[in-house]
Every structure is written in structure tokens, then in C-alpha cells.
Amino acid sequence: MSLRVKLFLVALVALVLPWAGFQFVRQMEILLREGQEAAQLDAAEALARALVATAPELPLAARAIQVAPVPTGLLIDGSGDDWASVPLIPERATGDRARLKLAASAGALFGYIEVDDRSRSRAPGMQDLRQFDHLSIDVGEGSKHRHFDIGNAAPGALQFIADPPDAEFALRGEWQETTSGYRLEFVLSGETDDIPIDMLVHDRNQAGQVQIQSLVRERGDELRSRLWRTDGAQARALEALVPEHTRLRLLSSDGEVLAKAGRLPVAERASGRPPPEFGTWIYRLLLAPPLSKAEDFDWELQRMDLPMVWQALGGLRASTWRPSASERTVIVAAAVPMAWQGDVRGALVLERSSEAMLVLANRAVAKLIAASLIAVLVAGVVLFGFAGVLSFRIQRLRNATERALKPDGRLDVKLPHLTASDEIGDLSRSFQKLLAELGGYNDYLKTLASKLSHELNTPLAIVRSSLDNLEHEPLPESARIYAERARDGADRLWAILRTMAEASRMEKAISAAEPEPFELGQVVRGCAESYQALAGTRKVHLMLPQEKLPFYGAPDLIAQALDKLYDNARGFTPEDGWIRIKLSIRPDEQIEIAVANSGPPLPARMQEKLFDSLVSVRDAGSLRAAGEVPHLGLGLYIVRLISEAHHGFAEASNLPQDAGVEFRIVLRGMNP
């Protein structure tokens, strides 16, 4: 885990403070909201009791039909043109075969019925009407009950049978035939507010059976529906009781809207709302209670099918919250039961906006929470930024430390933050001191070969001269064996010192070399031809480009590097193997000399160290057993120095499928 992430996680602990404040605010908001819900439920209950005392009694478990006011200019002529603004009565069970519209005024009920029946069977006389296609209207109850059977044989005034013949309700209207059936328009005179009614369609099929379907009752419902005028006594009572900036709706026992009154100070819907304020957004996101759908409380609904409504119809008070068109306001809806003589026959729904008390208080609380969150976020950003700077400084020091050791073995002790006065500065200065000591030790190792060759040269010369003099003295045979061994050891040691001295001279020669222009292909060709005599049974292949390669450098040094590479390749190539010398131009226009040979592959761990001083992969034990001079690993080191003198580099790799090894020197040329 990075340092920035750790500091950021530590900064998150500061979130405990706004979290605790948020919990307190949330509990306070819940108490305020519950208090407003309780106050609104109490107000709705008081209004419900007043409505029970002043308004007509709701029917017990009966279906109510809300009847619209009479449209302007209505003519009873059998045409449906005047009924375009009147909604269909939805409580019909005949599907699309019949359509019913009702309207009412003081003392009269107006109706429009349209029936699709292409196979209508007409009665031969009114006395046989009930056995054929016809309509029936059943209205009123008790002494005010009257039944009408309607069935015209031709268009014109309604023809019907009334039972009883004389009663309070009177019927008149017009019958019209249509291409798909028939329609009629009627007026039922009498007091129609809160009266039971039923309308039936009688259809005789081809088998002579009469099927009866209601226009105002659900299929299987045996109870007659009741007419309720939207401008009736219940609506007038609601208008008198509704408080300002409040809406009331009176519901029947099945959720039908019987009457409604009042208005809210905010709109129900609004298009193109402005973006909400920050405090309101925080309140809606963190504190607001679950909101019901606004469309479930649409003012034009004729039926409310909501959990809170059914809870109120079950005898329990209920409340809910819903959004409005204003982002600053929510609406609280409360539903309470309405009971007569202990029987719940409906519900009263009270709606009121909460901006006056709750939302204004929560706006200040939301700003407090927003300020706390902003403070924590600022602190987190500052800590995260500080961690980023600190991490960047540490990464920079780490990268500089990793790059301190150059590929050629030299040390670069230039590190960042050396002048810083903090802990990172102390760490950088400690690293610089350590690298400086390592660099000094590395320089000492580089000059060790020349120092050893110089210091051991004189003592070794004394030993060799002493052994030469000892050879002229008479020695027993047993002592002569030891003298010969001493001679062999001195010779090998002399060869080692000569090699070390040669390496030191080569370093000085490379630094003092004078560059000159020459043709590189000719130098490589001359070296390769001289190697043929030294190869024995090994095959030497030469690959040169067709064009000449003019080069600016030291040709003697290039030949020395080729000698070292060829000597190294010959030492690892079996007697029946091959050696390939290749001169080419790389895609980046640098010149490459590659010497490849068959034989054992290089160890993976040694490929990057082969060109360092005193590094060798040859078996020293086998060399001593063969009587050869131990290999000090200076040849490839000299190759690297020559390539660097020509602003290039040296590298080695195994051939594909471990077929051998290839050493490459890449050259750019010396500076003029």
C-alpha cells in the first residue's frame, strides 16, 4: 500500500465527526417529521369528525359513481356530440360493447348510452320486451324505487315500461339506431344525489337466451352502485371545512373519490425544473424520508389505490411524503378513517406542503452537514497532496539511487534533496556518503591490477633470477623436482602480471588514442583473414556489407577489440565448430560488429557482468590442470572500454535454441 493511500485512510478518520453530527441531525429531523405527521393526522381526524357531523352519511359497502356536472348546451336528441367533455363511467363490465356517460344537476340525472349489437332482436310488442334486446334502469330504494325497461323498435322518443307506473322518478329521452347497434340519451327527473342505481344491458342470443350485463357494476357484484355528484352535499361540506393551502379528498369504501376541495400553494407537475439548491440536494439525498410517487396523488384521479388509503379504510391512521414540482417543498399526505355508528365507510385524505416548518429547518441543517463534509474533503485533499509530494520525493530519491550504478560499473553520487533539512534530506545525504565510499572502493579495485603488477614485478624478478642461478648448482634429484615446480609457478605468476600490466597499458592507450578516418570493412577483413591460420579445424565465416563503411576512430583499437572477441570465441568453440564474424549497419545507422560461435550457452546471471573487470566464466581449476595461465576476465573488459571510447557499447546473448553465443560491439565513432 502506497504512502498516499495510507495518509488518505488516516484522513478518513476525521469523517467520524461529521458522521456523529449527521446522526444527531437525522434524529432531530425524524422527530420534527414525526411531529408534523402527528399534527397533520390530528387535523385530518378533526376534519373527518366535523364532516361526519355535517355531511350526508356515506353508504355502507356500496359502489359509488361520481357524476360530472351537466355540460353546457346539452340537448336530448340521441346524439353524443354534446358529451365530448364528460368522462366515461369506468365501472362497466361489458368491455367495449357498451359505453356510458352520466351527468347530474339539481333534480335531474342525464345519461348517454351507446351499445354495439349487430344482431339485435326487437320485441314485437312492449308486453314481450323483457324477452328481447333492451336496456333497464333500476333507481331509488324503498318507496322511491322505480324500474324502467327500455327498448325501441324504431328511432324516436324512448319507449319503456315503468314499474311502478307512478313514482318520484320520471324518464324521457331519444333512441337512435347506428350501423353497429343503437344509442340513447335520457333524462331521469328527481333527486339523484346519493341514490342507488343500476343499469343493465339485456342481449338475446341466437339460442333465445337473454344475457344480462351491468353498465355500472363489476362482474359478479350483487350490490347496486350509488350516484354521487361532484358538486353535491359532500363537496359543499368539504369546501366549507378545507383549510387554506390544503387539499381534501373524500373516498368511498373502495377508494373512489366522492368529493374533493382545496388547493396547494405549489404545482403538481412542472417541466424544465431549475437545478436544486445544494442544501436541498443534501436534504433529499441524506435526510428526506422515502417519497411516494407524485402521480399516485394526481388531482384528476377518480380512484386512489395506495397502501395508506387501504390502511385508513381498515380503521388505522396513515401518512406519507411525496415530492412536488418545487425542489424546496415536499407534500405530506395524511389519511384517516370516516366512521358512522362505528362502521368505517370511507376515508379522508389531507395534503399539505411542509415548507413552512420542516424544509426551512432542514435547509440550515443541510448547510451545516455540507460545511462539515467540505471541511473534511479539504483536509483530505491537503493530506493527499502532501502525501503525493512526499511520495514523489521518495520515489525520486529511489530512482536516483537505482541509477547511481552505471552499466560500466562507475558510480554517480549526484542525488536529489541533498540540501533539504527534513528526514528525506538526511536520508539522501546518507546515501550520498555511502555511494561515495563505494565509488572510492570501486576505483581502488580498478587500479588494483596495475598496482599489483608494479609492486610484484621486482620480487618476482628476484625469485626468477634465484631459480635461474639454482639451476646451475648441483642439486639432488628429489630437490630438483621442487625447483621445477617453483619455476612453473613463477612463470604462471609472471604471465598473470604481464596480462594485468597489458590491461593497464591498454586503458592508457585507449584514452590517448588518436582518431583517424578509415574504411572499417577493410580492417575487419584483414583481422578475419589472419584468424584463419589460428582456427585449426574450426570454420571461420566472414560477413561484410557490399558497400564500403567509412568510419572515424582508432583502427588499432578496433583490431584489438576483434582480437579479444575472437580469442574468447576460439576458447569456447569445439574443434569441429564454427566462428562467424559479421559487420553490419543497424536500423538506427549505428555500426555493429558481431562475433558468434558454436558452443555452450552463457549463464543467464552472467550476461550483464561479462564485460566487467576480473569477471570470467572459464573454469580456473581446469586451466590450472592443463598447465595454462588462469583467465582474469580482462579481455572483454578491454572490449567494453574500446566500444565506449567510440561512443558505443558491448553486449552478449545466446543464439536461438542455445546454438551458441554472440558478442556484439556497437560503434558510433570518436569525436574529431
From TrEMBL:
UniProtKB keywords: ATP-binding, Cell membrane, Kinase, Membrane, Nucleotide-binding, Phosphoprotein, Transferase, Transmembrane, Transmembrane helix
Alphabetical list of InterPro entries matching this protein: 2C_sensor_his_kinase, HAMP_dom, HATPase_C_sf, HATPase_dom, His_kinase_dom, HisK_dim/P_dom, HisK_dim/P_sf
Swiss-Prot/TrEMBL catalytic activity: ATP + protein L-histidine = ADP + protein N-phospho-L-histidine
Membrane topology: Multi-pass membrane protein
One cellular component (GO) term of this entry: plasma membrane
SUPFAM superfamilies associated with the record: ATPase domain of HSP90 chaperone/DNA topoisomerase II/histidine kinase, Homodimeric domain of signal transducing histidine kinase
Keyword flag Nucleotide-binding: yes
Compartments it resides in: Cell membrane
Boundaries of every HAMP domain copy: 388-443
This protein's name: histidine kinase
